[in-house]
Amino acid sequence: MTGALDGLIVLDLSRILAGPTATQMLGDLGATILKIENPKSGGDDTRAWGPNYAVDADGNNTDLSAYFMCANRNKKSIAVDIATTEGQDIIRKLAARADIVVENFKPGGLAKYGLDHTAMMKAHPELVYCSISGFGQTGPNSDKPGYDLMAQGYGGIMSLTGDVDGPPMKVGVGIADVMCGMYATIGILAALRHRERTGEGQHIDVALVDTQMAWLINEGTNFLTSGKLPARHGNGHPNIVPYSVFPASDGHVIIAVGNDAQFKRFCDFLNKPDLPEDAKFATNVARIENRMELMTIINAVLEQVKMADIIAGLETVKVPVGPINTVEGALCSGQAKAREMVVEMTNENVKDGAVSVLGNPLNLSRTPVTYRHPPPMFGQDTNQVLNDYIYKHDENKEV
Fold it and tell me: Which residues are annotated as catalytic?
């Protein structure tokens, strides 16, 4: 079976994480991804973002860092210097063969090369051209660089994350980048649908900070509705209590009590059947108002019980509960194996001939995702791509 996007060609001028996340998703769905990398810098910046690299047969680090591999499978790597006339000509010729262009230069950064969306779409009106930046193509901050940490800070999520009395805290992975890549993918697919109906391409302007603000979700809407700044609740939930991380005698567990019926069953497990009858805890609104008192009562009971007993007991009475896995615990779990969330990809350039990457969570019954190409070594596909996409179609070049 071929992927849903089989036959589409993506010219990928992006680097780091947001753009590569989007293009990897398109590649997993079957599109051909032509990743342009700068020979002067050794390619995508993340190739040097160690530690942790795939090693070659002699045990030496390759340019396949774990960071690079997380967002660059199903791509062909082409070394092109777009600062040169020859490089710009190559990009234009590849764009003529492409359906989609994805770039994450600073707004206006490609205009000096004649590779911006205005120039490229004038030449190819059917092109879907996606620009990813820190703050977007417009606005007072449009000229500022965008990094995930800056987006998390500017967009508000850090003010909500961390201990109640601690400093603002970023999310443990580059979630602003990843979510921006996801929004970019959705925009690209919508633009392709429009093109399918009309034959008309369009420009997509998506920003890290915009997307980060959008996924403030309930806390953003809480503020817009009340005018009150949301407070940090650590691992707690702003609108549901009890819903948090709780101590056990040998670690911690997650318990998420979503309604009054679950709360009653939870209290029976705690051997505290009187709590749901207490007006301070009878409803979720009351439990929010008396959060600290209730949490103190719950903690005092659970910290005397082993994690396994808490999990088994609450699962029996159908109260949502779960462990806090390490990364190893998550990726080596039976659930991860059953859902194929770790994928081994053959790569003859590395020791033992394979690299492991995270799986794609999409499960499509007719057009499943595919893992066709491992993350590429820098520039490994340059000659083949130029030959197949340019020279064979250029009467002035020899193959």
Answer: 177
